Amino acid sequence: MFKRRKMGATYVRSPAQNVQTAMAGNASKVVFAIFICILYLVILFVLVGILRFLYVEFGSMDPNTTVIYLYNTPYCLPLKIAGIVFILFYVFRDKMTNR
């Protein structure tokens, strides 16, 4: 059986405790990143809807064009990918979340 070593007034943490702390931090980051990515995609969908409305009312877009069709076009794909990559990079590399 292993004993903890006492170093002055503090105790040395076991490797299992270090892994537990790291896993809890990463799990919360994953859940937060998923929530923020879903929120980003919903906001992007709303913005595409607003742009569709403006193009139909003030532009020359066909009124039968749906928002979901515009949302799934290849022009919107880079916005989805870039936004999700930025969110993941921000959540996992931000110094505030590493404290």
Keywords:
mainly alpha; 99 residues; two-stranded antiparallel ribbon; single chain; 67% helix; 3 helices
Major sheet attributes:
2 strands, antiparallel
Q: Structural class, from secondary structure content? A: mainly alpha
Oligomer designation: single chain
- Total DSSP E strands: 2
Mean pLDDT: 84
Strand content: under 5%
Shape: rod-shaped
Helix-strand sequence = EEHHH
Number of domains: 1
Helicity level: 55-70%
Radius of gyration over alpha carbons?
Answer: 23 Å
Q: Spans of 5+ residues with little confidence (pLDDT < 50)?
A: none
Number of helices: 3
Q: Tell me the span between the first and last alpha carbons.
A: 32 Å
Cross-sheet strand order for the largest sheet: 1-2
Write the layout of secondary structure elements.
Elements: E1 6-7, E2 10-11, H1 15-58, H2 67-71, H3 77-93
Antiparallel strand pairs: 1-2
Helix pairs in contact: 1-3
Task: Walk me through this protein's architecture.
This protein is mainly alpha-helical and 99 residues long. 67% of the residues lie in helices and 4% in strands. The protein contains three helices and two strands; from the N terminus they run ββααα. A two-stranded antiparallel ribbon has the order 1-2. A hairpin with a 2-residue loop joins strand 1 (6-7) and strand 2.
